[in-house]
Amino acid sequence: MTVPMPLIIGVTLAVLLGLATFLTWFERRLLGLWQDRYGPNRVGPGGILQAVADGVKILFKQDWIPPFADRGVFVLAPAIGMMTVLLSFGVVPVTAFWSIAGNLNVGLLFVLAMMGMGVYGVVLAGWASNSKYALLGGMRAAAQMISYEVFMGLSVLGVVMQAGSFSMRDIVLAQSGLWFIVPQVLGCMVFMLAGVAETHRLPFDLPEGENELGAGFHTEYSGMKFGMFFLAEYAGVVLISALLATLYLGGWQGPLLPPPLWFGLKTGALVCLFILLRAALPRPRYDQLMALGWKILLPLSLLNIAATGAILLLHAPG
Amino acid sequence: MFGILRTLWLTFLHMGHRRVTVGYPEHKPPLPPRYRGRIILSRDPDGMERCVACNLCAVACPVDCISLQKAEQDGRWYPDYFRINFSRCIFCGMCEEACPTYAIQLTPDFEMSEYLRPNLVYEKEDLLISGTGKYPDYSFFRVAGVKIPGKDKGEAEREAPPVDIHTLLP
Amino acid sequence: MATILIDGRACPARTDENLLQACLEAGADLPYFCWHPELGSVGACRQCAIKQFSGPDDKTGRIVMACMTQVTDGAILSIDDPQAREFRAGVVEWLMTNHPHDCPVCPEGGECHLQDMTVMTGHDSRRYRFAKRTHRNQDLGPFINHEMNRCIGCYRCVRFYRDYAGGEDLAAFAAHNDLYFGRHEDGALESAFSGNLVEICPTGVFTDKPFSAVYSRKWDMGGAPSVCAHCAVGCNTIVNARQGSVRRVINRYHEAVNRYFLCDRGRYGHGFTNAPTRPRAPILRQGGIPVPISMATALERFATMAKDGPIVGIGSTRASLESNFALRCLTGPDRFSTGLAQLEHDLTMQVPALLRATPARNPSLHDMESADAVLVLGEDVCVTAPRLSLALRQTLRRAAFPAADAAKVPHWMDAAVRMFGSDAPSPLMVLTPAATDLDPIAATAHRAAPDAIARLGFAVAHRLDGSAPDAPDLSETESRLADTIATALRTGRRPLIVAGLQYANAALIHAAANIATALHATGADAALSLVAPDCNSMGMALTGGIPLDAVRTMARTGHIGTLVVVENDLTRRLDTATLDELLAAVPHLVVIDHIATRLAERADLVLPAASFAESGGTLVSTEGRAQRFLPVITPTMPVQESWRWTQQFTRAATHADAPEWTNLDQIVATIAHDIPALSRIIDAAPDAGYRLDGRRLRSEPARISGRTAVRANISVHDRPLPQSPDTPLSPSMEGAYSPDTPGALVPFYHAPGWNSVQSLNRFQQEIGGPMRGGDAGARLLDDGIPAQAPEWHHDIPAPSTAAPDDLLLLPEPRLFGTEELSALSPPIAARVTPATLRLGTLPAGLQDGGMVSLTLAGERLTLPVRHDPALPPGIALCPPHLAARAFTAPVRVQLHRDDTP
């Protein structure tokens, strides 16, 4: 059973961008729910059209580039940010047969590579803005994202070792018995924290750090260029959720319901978890963030690899 | 670690809590009488302007949004003009606190948005109400020892009749 | 110097002062009411109680009144002592028992000494539950409001009004709790210094009535240092303004000039700046119809006019040095007129030279107060220089000081010292044609015609120094009088001669110079003061120029294309016929002025000038002190300073050497460079570049209110206030402020805890001494006292041989009404009385108050007659300008026999 490629790309893109736009509203409603308030509830039924209103507003805002900015890089940065996230989705299997890149045998590596590229979007934005807050935000982002990329890569090694493949479909298929979250609980935790840091979502949103940096790396951005950062962030949330679902929660697999729905449910639940993190947790100090990474997550992920390796060796045939 | 999880859980439980937000335009919250909203100038129980143009509200105002000019008729001081620039007002209530005659009062009305800033400049005609506001009984000139029409020297509260300066008797 | 310990802090003090002064000079906050630096101590209010300890071992101490206790070296005091505090709190609470709870409607509120002192003592709530004593108020005239309920009975008002200023019509009535300060009946206060009651009164009993009509709290008004323009004394003032209008004028302390007091003309004469008739736009008169035009058009018109022949300028003795000088630059020195008629011109021109040539001192006002024998020679200083007469009044006390010293009574012990002086005051001799306000306290008051006074003066000089020429043919009475005066003057160690230009009589000032020279030769520290008529007469004398008569000659010969008149109403200088003739011969008349004058009605082009409140400039006072006034209001174009108009004229007329002044300091520098006699005017005040702590001085108090609302009815947008290039003061409350501000730049007086004018104590090096930041002004005439033998003046007038019918009509300037600018001020105008003709002997058949007619300055006048038996025969008096506009100098007149016109 094959699905035509253009359809897959089109549907994925449409769903993804729609989802990201939807999330801008959904997150605020959910935050409101958990914080005993309403959130945007005025535009359309339940406020659902708020996302449209915001979109219209942001599209029609003046496309302003500060005179002191590095114009080329300034324009390029949000595009990089958006592109890397979207490209990552290419290897995420919605079902066994629904994946843009098909069954790419280095799928996971590709995702990690794209994440590494994503750093440029943020760093270049901070650099090109040519203002102190943006630069500070960019610098923080560089350090934070490069650090957490290490733990992210290390944490998924356990999964790769167990599945014996970098292919996302193989990884999902390898979980048909037991979801990897059980044997890889450490790796899953590390991956999730690293994912939050990689998408610089709260509580790890230090590159934006409103109360000390204005708006961090995108201080100078407005209009749709800002909108692209904004959408990229939400798309990133969906991506990390989808990866978590794929790598640790068995992907599309599940009883009764059709596979795409299972995938959607798992991803959606994780997205809600991301939002809950934002609703509940305060932002750590920058040094605390780095200490968490290097002093806790790194040993933990190394321990995870060693343990997984040891167990695999012990159970290895012959 | 446990603390973080507990926080997450407690926050999650808030899903079932009642929302504290009041849906304002449909549901108007009851405001206390001492709420600090739109500023008015009141009148004394006799229906005369309470404001005596002493300028204390103006000097107390931290954003300097009150301006007035004193005028006088038969011993009564009153403001020739009294202007509040509400586009600057921060509704701190210092003017009310400074007012020695209870003339300037803040009211529970806060719905005073305008599309044009000049419309937020209120003159005396816009500020002066016909009632006494929060203090129904106070009249400055009944207490102060100045002479005004209808109240001669020595007729204020706790005042003795004017002295006859031509006598040396104790 | 002594050292005293105030609450354990060692402070320097002087042994000739009292403890209150010492504490205030040490920066301590010690409340007081009845003491005043100029009035001394009487110990009436009991407010300045402090603890004094007899030695380091004395732990009990005793409460003393600081103002009544002399400083002794090593005195140990405590202001903070609980008992002293309780005592002071009790006094204030007791003073406040009858206070009427009306601060919100009291014009004193916010600058009230009583408020300050009540806060200082900590009294905040009323415990007294009984009825308050009340009083009825009086109508005290157009200057002063009366609200007796506020009185705390400190007696400052009567001590100033009666003891210091010699007024008779304000007194204390009733007794104990009912004490009342007022007149015996309603009516305007007669003293020329009644306005000072506003500043003297520690609370709101006496308040400023004209100010109350345009009232603003002290914290809401911008201020700028200014110089009074209503006589030649040059009193320092502070002008207060808000929203572009002048609100009031108050005293600015100058140690050597006006010190703590102003006269009413100076305090209330500023009303002309707000006159609705003021020209506010250039006016072109085409075919008799005035048309307002733009600045550019006005300058174009002037350029066209300038092509029609030479420009001649007429300056003014009431305009600043800068305005006159700029005009002189436009026309050249040969075509610049002083704006004075020949007689007045000649006299004015020789005053500086006379003062320089006479070896006697040219005293400041404060210096005059220490004279111990005074001769006033033919000048009614009470009206021509009122503040000077107040200084002369203080000289009477000099005789008391040696007696007080002998009895070891300190000079600040006011009541006791006055007791010593009451028997034998220092001699004050007044020789004038008519009675003056100084007569009641004068040892000798003699009435004579100006020439006769001059003769007497020469005779006195001869009696003091035989080499001086004697006046021949003196009558026996005159001879005896001359002897008396000479003897009296000889007793003084610091004798003072005062004369002036009131009667435009050269012999008078020469006689005064002779006496001063003779006194100096006897070894006395003699002083000579000559009173000039206008605020910048002396400046004009030093600038120089041609008299009006020379301008008339030029006009007659067709040598004038355009006549530019700056701030001078020639209708007050030239009689109608002369003026008509002059104007007929002048093709174009341009008038620059800040008031609507009759001359302006006839001008082809009228340009609106800035008044003293809107411009900066320099005036030279009668003692030769150049003093700077600074703008308190930024003028709205096209109103601008006269010198800016004339500078633009110079450019419009395309002179090759058009001056490039962009601010006041540049024109001041040019004047100082071009006119050597005025070289020191640069030092009159710090220039616009002056910075305190790196910032401009603020002109408004920090707590000014309504900044975002005051203009909101016009525009809600904020705008930066325009900064005048002529002043170091910022236009707002932003800037530095300190008690160390130079005296020439003080915009208002305020010190923490001291909101009233009493905060002045903090600005002085010592109480009653120079300002901490230096006193204002620069004296210009102190150079060139000749060492050689005295030069005597010989122009002794001959004895009068006038026909019995012939009357010498003398100008009789009045305190209110004859000075041009102040007469336009509504409160002053309310005090002007109609002109009368004062006669010593009434013609037969004429009653006092009857009408008589005469021809004066080309006009036939009918005036009511007032009989004044004190006048010498052959003398009549008429106020200048009031009856006949151009009447200024003595003139021989005959009364018309018949009253039919």
From TrEMBL, chain A:
EC code: 7.1.1.-
Primary subcellular site in the record, as a coarse category: membrane
Membrane topology: Multi-pass membrane protein
Protein name in the entry: NADH-quinone oxidoreductase subunit H
The reaction(s) this protein catalyses: a quinone + NADH + 5 H(+)(in) = a quinol + NAD(+) + 4 H(+)(out)
HAMAP family, per the entry: NDH1_NuoH (MF_01350)
Domain of life: Bacteria
Function field: NDH-1 shuttles electrons from NADH, via FMN and iron-sulfur (Fe-S) centers, to quinones in the respiratory chain. The immediate electron acceptor for the enzyme in this species is believed to be ubiquinone. Couples the redox reaction to proton translocation (for every two electrons transferred, four hydrogen ions are translocated across the cytoplasmic membrane), and thus conserves the redox energy in a proton gradient. This subunit may bind ubiquinone.
Lineage summary: Bacteria, Pseudomonadati, Pseudomonadota, Alphaproteobacteria, Acetobacterales
Protein family membership: Belongs to the complex I subunit 1 family.
Keyword Transmembrane helix found: yes
InterPro entries membership: NADH_UbQ_OxRdtase_su1/FPO, NADH_UbQ_OxRdtase_su1_CS
Cellular compartments annotated: Cell membrane; Membrane
GO MF entries: NADH dehydrogenase activity; oxidoreductase activity, acting on NAD(P)H, quinone or similar compound as acceptor; quinone binding
Pfam families xrefs: NADHdh
Automatic annotation (TrEMBL), chain B:
UniProt subcellular location: Cell inner membrane; Cell membrane
Enzyme Commission designation: 7.1.1.-
Enzyme class, UniProt record, top EC level: translocase
Record's keyword annotation contains Repeat: yes
Xref: SUPFAM superfamilies: 4Fe-4S ferredoxins
Binding site residues for [4Fe-4S] cluster 2: 61, 89, 92, 95
The reaction(s) this protein catalyses: a quinone + NADH + 5 H(+)(in) = a quinol + NAD(+) + 4 H(+)(out)
GO molecular function per UniProt: 4 iron, 4 sulfur cluster binding; iron ion binding; NADH dehydrogenase (quinone) (non-electrogenic) activity; quinone binding
Cofactor(s) the protein needs: [4Fe-4S] cluster
Protein keywords: 4Fe-4S, Cell membrane, Iron, Iron-sulfur, Membrane, Metal-binding, NAD, Oxidoreductase, Quinone, Repeat, Translocase, Ubiquinone
Gene3D superfamilies for the chain: 3.30.70.3270
GO cellular component, one term: plasma membrane
GO biological process terms on file: aerobic respiration
Residues covered by the 4Fe-4S ferredoxin-type domain: 39-71, 80-109
Positions that bind [4Fe-4S] cluster 1: 51, 54, 57, 99
Major place of residence: membrane
Topology in membrane: Peripheral membrane protein
Cofactor binding remark: Binds 2 [4Fe-4S] clusters per subunit.
Functional description taken from the UniProt entry: NDH-1 shuttles electrons from NADH, via FMN and iron-sulfur (Fe-S) centers, to quinones in the respiratory chain. The immediate electron acceptor for the enzyme in this species is believed to be ubiquinone. Couples the redox reaction to proton translocation (for every two electrons transferred, four hydrogen ions are translocated across the cytoplasmic membrane), and thus conserves the redox energy in a proton gradient.
Family note: Belongs to the complex I 23 kDa subunit family.
Assembly behavior: NDH-1 is composed of 14 different subunits. Subunits NuoA, H, J, K, L, M, N constitute the membrane sector of the complex. NDH-1 is composed of 13 different subunits. Subunits NuoA, H, J, K, L, M, N constitute the membrane sector of the complex.
Record-given protein name: NADH-quinone oxidoreductase subunit I
Organism: Gluconacetobacter aggeris
Chain's gene name: nuoI
UniProtKB/TrEMBL annotation, chain C:
Cofactor: [2Fe-2S] cluster; [4Fe-4S] cluster
Alphabetic keyword roster: 2Fe-2S, 4Fe-4S, Iron, Iron-sulfur, Metal-binding, NAD, Oxidoreductase, Quinone, Translocase
Catalyzed reaction equations: a quinone + NADH + 5 H(+)(in) = a quinol + NAD(+) + 4 H(+)(out)
Chain intervals for the UniProt region annotation (Disordered): 717-736
Record-linked Pfam families: Fer2_4, Fer4_Nqo3, Molybdop_Fe4S4, Molybdopterin, NADH-G_4Fe-4S_3
The 2Fe-2S ferredoxin-type domain, residue ranges: 1-83
Top-level taxon of origin: Bacteria
GO BP, sorted A to Z: ATP synthesis coupled electron transport
Every 4Fe-4S Mo/W bis-MGD-type domain range: 221-277
A GO CC annotation given for this chain: membrane
PANTHER family: NADH-QUINONE OXIDOREDUCTASE SUBUNIT G (PTHR43105:SF10), RESPIRATORY NITRATE REDUCTASE (PTHR43105)
Family: Belongs to the complex I 75 kDa subunit family.
Full protein name: NADH-quinone oxidoreductase subunit G
Organism: Gluconacetobacter aggeris
